[in-house]
Structure formats: structure tokens, C-alpha cells
Amino acid sequence: MIEDAGIADEDVERAWRLTRAAYDDPEFEGLEIDDTRAIIDSTGSSLHVAFRGTATPLNAAHDVAFLLRPLSDFPSLSVGDDVWAARVHSGFAKMASNVSDRLAERLEKWPRKTVVLSGHSLGGALAILVGGALKGRGRSIQLCTFGAPPPGDAQYARLLDGVPCLRFANRCDPVPRSLGGADHGGLGGLVDLPMVREYVHVGTHVELEPWSETWRHAVEAVAGRQAGAALATAPAPAATEPRPAAEPSTAQQLWSVLSNSVSNAATRIASKTLEVHSVDTYESHLRAYMAKRRASLEGSPAEAKIEF
Hints:
Order of helices and strands: HHEEEHEEHEHEEHEEEHHHH
Low-confidence stretches: 183-189, 224-234
Radius of gyration: 24 Å
Number of strands: 11
């Protein structure tokens, strides 16, 4: 699958290291404008740029500004001449347009290097949009995203046809599925509404989550149904005890049990969502995926240890 995209394993591993560092590592050169943060690593044969994911309230506000707007509304993100029909996520595009020109100027110091852009979550969507802008300026680019939502519609995705792009995702992570009813790489949209169903992912989908993990997440998300067991095993009232046709205390108890069950289920699902989408979970799954891949390529029965 990685071979199909044309991105080297070492670039995937390097992209992840920089993607993680984009959240809080001050070691790397970079820039930050209006809460859009990107860091740069120029030490290898290729030039790596990673974007930070959602980390501030302003980032979150841009995340939910999901109405599609014409790409032509954001001139700094132009991919080429044929952009009139393409539409992009308005919040992501605003953030990407804040840094695209400045970043392009910064990267002019390395004009011959291929630029590998990466990011987790929101950062992955920004990587694609800024990568498209660099492509429009004639730069050679590659894209590597982790748990990222789609940044635009099918026409925008077509503008990036031929660009090496790997899109890593966990099966139970709702963020990559949060927008779009159609998909290039096998992830269908969770929300089938007119305003979001036209989103389409860019690149080759790589599934990181093993089925054993998927089942574990599913069980944990629905576990703890003590309320149902309590109702089933509650003692029946004595036959001689007078019982009103509609006893308020029983109704109140039932409502309390139901409301607590819904609240607990929502809490478990929210907690599980944060876990599955977290940087730590992606790192764990990517490490296992790359170790299996390396062992397969080397013909070794033992999986290699991957350190990021």
C-alpha cells in the first residue's frame, strides 16, 4: 500500500516524528500565525513540514466552520489554473491561507528538495491544503496524514491526483469519517447531510487499527450496563402490598436509571473517541504497522522494533 503511494518508509516514520513534535516541541524551526503552527525539518534528503492539530479554542472554532467554499476565495491556496469548480472546508482553508505564503517563502531556501507535508487531525487537513498550494507553485510534494478529516470536495481531490499521499486512520476513529458521504479510500461518512456529504478524502487509505483493537473498543464503549441488570434482578413487591396503578417513585427510579445509563454511555463513547483519536494511540498503531511491514520486507519471522 505504501509502495502504491510512492512514499518511502523512512519518510513515513520521519513524518510521524515531526507530526508529534508539532504539538509542543520547540526544537524545530517553524512559524505560527493566528494559531496555525507548522514546523520544518531540513536535515534529510527530503524537506519535511508538519502542522499541529487542534490545540486551542480558535482551532476548534475553525474545525466546526465546515461549510464548503470555492477554492477561488483563497488565492494563496490555488493548486493550478483549473480551480474554478473546487470547494474546500472554509475553516481549514482560512487557517491554511494564513501560513501558505510565508511557508512557501521559507522553503525557497531548499528549492530542489521534495517537500513532505504531514499532520495529525486538523494538521493533516492543513498539510493537504498547503501542499496543494506548493504544488501550484511548482514544488514537488508528498503528503502523509494521520486521523485527518477531508479538506474539500471531489473536484479538489482531483486537483491532487498523482500526488503521493498516504492517509493513515484508525477504524474506530470518527474524525476521518466526520465529513463526507463519498470516499476515495474506503472510509464512508458518518454524517449524511447535504452540507457535508460532498467531502472526499485525498490519497491512499492505510488502516492502522487491527480488528482485535476494534472489538476491544466496541466492547468497552458499551460495557457497564449495570442498570439493566439491576432492573432485571430487582425484587418484586409483596403480593399483599397495595400497589397503585402508576406509582410515582417507581417511575422516578426508572427515569433515573435510564438517564444515568444514557449519560454513562455518552461519557464512555466520548472517552473512547478521545482515546482512539489520540496521538499516543496513533503512534502505538503506526509502530506496530511499520514493524510488521519491516519484518515482511526483510523476510524475518520476528517483528522489528520501531522507535520514533
